[in-house]
Amino acid sequence: MRDQPTGDQLLATARDLLREDVLPTLSGSQRHNALMIANAMSIAMRQLQSGDEPERRELAALGKILPLPESHGLALQQALTEANRALCRLIREGRADSGQTRDQVRALLLETTRQRVAISNPKYLG
Amino acid sequence: MMEETLRQALAAFIAKETGAAEARISEAKLLTGGAVQENWKVQVDITGGAYAGVLDAVIRTDSASGGVAVSHNRAEEYALLKAAFAAGVTVPEPLWLCADKAVIGRPFFVMLCIAGTAAGHLLVKDARYGGDRVQLAERLGMELARIHSIRPPRPDLAFLEWYEEAPALHSVGRFRRYLDSHAIPHPALEWGLRWLERNAPPRGDIVLSHRDFRTGNYMVDENGLTGILDWEFAGWSDPLEDIGWFCAKCWRFGAKGREAGGIGEREDFYRGYEKISGRRLDRQLVHYWEVMAHAAWAIIAIQQAERHVSGEETSLMLALTGHIAPELEYEILTMTEPV
């Protein structure tokens, strides 16, 4: 068990303090730095909150398009990297140019990319 | 603060170049110091010679570390500025190049100082900058057409990479080679590159492309444009590469409705370009180059993040730039789908 508050909760509280109390006292390049820090904390917070569930879903979805590498025993990140490398090859070789594979690949890319934007810059999705 | 030895060496160089009896640097301010280079704004009091009086100038030096591999060094940038100035492009007038490292320890050149601001987010938000926006958009189109009047062969620009491929395919190849060397696969970007490959326009006119012609890289005052900046990525390419880069959604600083760089209307920008170049722009093809712009910016964002991650240059700015890649890739997926 981890102690509370958890990492994402700490980041949220620290970021709000930075934004509400510290930022108004700053100007110029220090203000710009503080905004960058708050942004970095938000990204880290969202990444912690989402956990590795989206990546497990991504790997499962990849498995419906590609024969997955022998991923048993591989760490999730490593398995994802290998599967996505295989997906890159498939796209580059034109095997996702048309037909059902095209539709499947596009749907997967849209979903995973939307998920990444939701971590990096959720405002972009409106 | 500019060190006294540097100050004196620069003053002596300027005195020699202008045939002055004496030159003295009365003010010096560091504008930007970074991995790529250092820029100093200086005021020089010159007695006698061709530039007698007070000279407001900018000194651009190579970085001590040598800078980013893909960018041009100062001698090359000086040659590009010279070529642009001669072609009638509004740029800070390049005055003198010093390639001799013995003078201040690294190459540098001197250019006239221009007034104004270049900050993209200010220009987009605050109408006080840049004067009339219809005129500004048209003017930028005219400037770009003048840049594109610079055509190969140019012995003075022989350092620019030459290639025989279609420019679009050349870029796709370069981006793929980078992705292959990178630890993290980017399948959405690969999707975009495959689309760019399949839809690539053939090689046509080859012109000098600025390759970073966008809001944020030109300077304006309250009356309008004062200069086109940042020439270090220029190269031979298809004229539409710069048009697509300027208009791409990712360079509008949030002002998505103003499709010409977040500051104006596309048609105003196009009109200026067509007026000077005498060539009609293929609107349909501009879309292709806007997809290319998103792919190119995504690659740069990944490279910037890598500089931080690898430990080459620890910087929160570089780190956060990497987190722009997902929205660029999302945009690519949207843009490559038939409507």
Short description:
The complex is a heterodimer of chains A (about 130) and B (about 350). Chain A is an all-alpha fold and about 130 residues long.
User: Which structural class do you get from the secondary structure elements of chain B?
Assistant: alpha+beta
Helix content of chain A: over 70%
**What distance separates the N and C termini of chain A?**
36 Å
Count of discrete domains of chain A: 2
Tell me about the largest β-sheet of chain A: none
Number of domains of chain B: 2
Silhouette of chain A: elongated
Q: What is the overall shape of chain B?
A: globular
State the order of secondary-structure elements of chain A, H for helix, E for strand: HHHHH
Radius of gyration of chain A: 19 Å
Give the strand line-up of the largest sheet of chain B. Answer: 1-2-3-5-4
Would you kindly provide a written description of the structure presented here, covering whatever features stand out?
The complex is a heterodimer of chains A (126) and B (339). Helices cover 72% and strands 0% of the residues of chain A. Chain A is built from five helices and no strands. The longest helix of chain A has 23 residues, at 28-50. With 339 residues, chain B is an alpha+beta fold. Chain B folds into two domains: 4-112, Phosphorylase Kinase, domain 1, CATH 3.30.200.20; 120-335, Aminoglycoside 3'-phosphotransferase, Chain: A, domain 2, CATH 3.90.1200. Chain B has a five-stranded antiparallel β-sheet with strand order 1-2-3-5-4. Chain B has a two-stranded antiparallel sheet with strand order 6-9. In chain B, helix 7 (187-198) packs antiparallel against helix 10, helix 8 packs across helix 10 (283-309) and helix 10 (283-309) packs across helix 11. The interface between A and B is medium-sized, with 30 and 26 residues.
